[in-house]
Amino acid sequence: MASTEPASTAPVTPGAAFETEAPNIRAGRLDPAAYIDVFDDLHPPLTRHEAFVEADRCYFCYDAPCMDACPTGIDIPLFIRQIAADNPTGSAKTILAENILGGMCARVCPTETLCEQACVREMAEGKPVKIGLLQRYATDHLMAEGGHPFTRAAPTGKHVAVVGAGPAGLSAAHRLAKHGHDVTIFEARPKGGGLNEYGIAAYKTVDDFAQRELDFILQIGGITIENGKTLGRDISIEALNAGYDAVFLGMGLPDVNDLGLEGEDAEGCIDAVEYIAALRQSDNLSTLPVGRDVVVIGGGMTAIDIAIQIKLLGAENVTIAYRRGRESMNASAYEQELAQTHGVVIRHWLQPKAVKRNEAGAICGIELEYTAQPDGKLVGTGETLTLPADQVFKAIGQAFTAHPLAGSGIGLAKGRISVDAERRTSIDGIWAGGDCVAGGQDLTVASVQDGKLAAESIHRALMRIPDRMDGFAEAVLAGGGAGQASQMPHQSPSADPSAPPQAR
Ligand SMILES: Cc1cc2nc3c(=O)[nH]c(=O)nc-3n(C[C@H](O)[C@H](O)[C@H](O)COP(=O)(O)OP(=O)(O)OC[C@H]3O[C@@H](n4cnc5c(N)ncnc54)[C@H](O)[C@@H]3O)c2cc1C
Ligand code: SF4
């Protein structure tokens, strides 16, 4: 069995991985008192009054476009109406019936490109209903009340193995447990939560929310987490397939992409995800090393998150260098603006060319080449510039590691696990979802939906419930063709048994 430890599942020792002698990198750049509020809640929760006012802005649209734009298909107009009727508990149940991580998604979803972008008020006035904040209002209320809103079905005697306790694995585990199956989650890291615990920016999830939500999910019962158990090192895929009634793989993307530059092993050239994990696990932020001049390479959420967080920790100059134009960045316009309002400079059409080191071997700058895209193909123009840099953060994406699956015969596509619409892999008895599967959106909410779809498919397989007729009956009733109705891989295959009635 391979024993290589993927970058993101290695233990996190806050600060230790980045120890340095470089003069411009130092810990404790802020006044000690400043660390207390430096990562305050990005969007403070709505008060009860604010929630009523916001809920009243909703038109409770029939065929609501916001609902179609939600990857987990939450009945948004219904939950908003329940808030307007002063029933936040019922509202939270509506949300959690489709998305058991609705509390985290309310904090981290890029709503500006999902439900709020689709809201008719956004179309009409450029001011959508604040769906994310309303979702948080309801789910926070329910969690503060304590208890768990769902009960388990009678035990089925079936036992499912889940690999990875991230959003995909937790969503699958909860739905399976609710159906009465027992679930064991094998998780490489000491804590569950996946990137909710180790990756999401600190200002999006304050007050240890990832662990509180994990505890909330486990309250359903029937789920055991074995931390520190790595597939490919402590357990094999063959053993799981043979020893359990079904297997769900939700391993995320444990490796990171390199820049491919000479000198990138230099002190101060850091993987952004690793640094964020250390930051999230640190109980003393003043120990984290922070450069004076910092350059971030990348154009996605991770690039924005590390840039803002290192700026908040006291870096003087933070620049994001991205190789294409503004509109091609994976980070939304809102996130780009957020970085800029925190004092981060974003420069486009620049690609890294060489890491500059001083005599001591530490980074002192990065050479970047201007790029252009004539005829749609990105090319370097040959012109260069060098930015001073004590720290260079690599944020150019993460990668799947297939070695834990070696010998299993599981099919891959584009370097990730290949699955069908029900999240079945090419091997009988094994399902997969979340970031580790091909064709996903690499978002928390999309991973939750994958886990849910896989759990429903596993449940049907274990209980020998006949497959749906691929929408044939619904299509005939609706007057359409069968093919038409089957083209909806992201919709729930079967209604949640504990979902509240459709009150609209
Ligand atoms: C820095 C960063 C910031 C992000 N910010 C946002 C955001 O603001 N909003 C948003 O919607 N999305 C965000 N994302 C994306 C989001 O976090 C992911 O899409 C989501 O976490 C994927 O869930 P997952 O369960 O598939 O994988 P993960 O969350 O990665 O969980 C996978 C779990 O599997 C475990 N594991 C891996 N290999 C093994 C193994 N061999 N054996 C056992 N366990 C294993 C890992 O330790 C981990 O706990 C961000 C991503 C990053 C990197
Ligand atoms: S689209 Fe906007 S107004 Fe219509 S139901 Fe959704 S949130 Fe309400």
UniProtKB/TrEMBL annotation:
Coiled coil segments of this chain: none
Q: Which residues form the Dihydroprymidine dehydrogenase domain?
A: 39-145
Q: Which GO terms describe its molecular function?
A: dihydropyrimidine dehydrogenase (NAD+) activity; iron-sulfur cluster binding
Q: List keywords of the entry alphabetically.
A: Oxidoreductase
Q: What class of enzyme is it?
A: oxidoreductase
Where are the residues of the annotated region Disordered?
480-504
Entry-linked Pfam families? Fer4_20, Pyr_redox_2
Query: EC number(s) of the enzyme?
Result: 1.3.1.1
Q: Catalysed reaction(s)?
A: 5,6-dihydrouracil + NAD(+) = uracil + NADH + H(+); 5,6-dihydrothymine + NAD(+) = thymine + NADH + H(+)
Per UniProt, residues of the FAD/NAD(P)-binding domain are 159-451
The record's function comment reads:
Involved in pyrimidine base degradation. Catalyzes physiologically the reduction of uracil to 5,6-dihydrouracil (DHU) by using NADH as a specific cosubstrate. It also catalyzes the reverse reaction and the reduction of thymine to 5,6-dihydrothymine (DHT).
* Subunit structure as annotated in this protein's UniProt entry: Heterotetramer of 2 PreA and 2 PreT subunits.
Q: How is this protein named in the record?
A: dihydrouracil dehydrogenase (NAD(+))
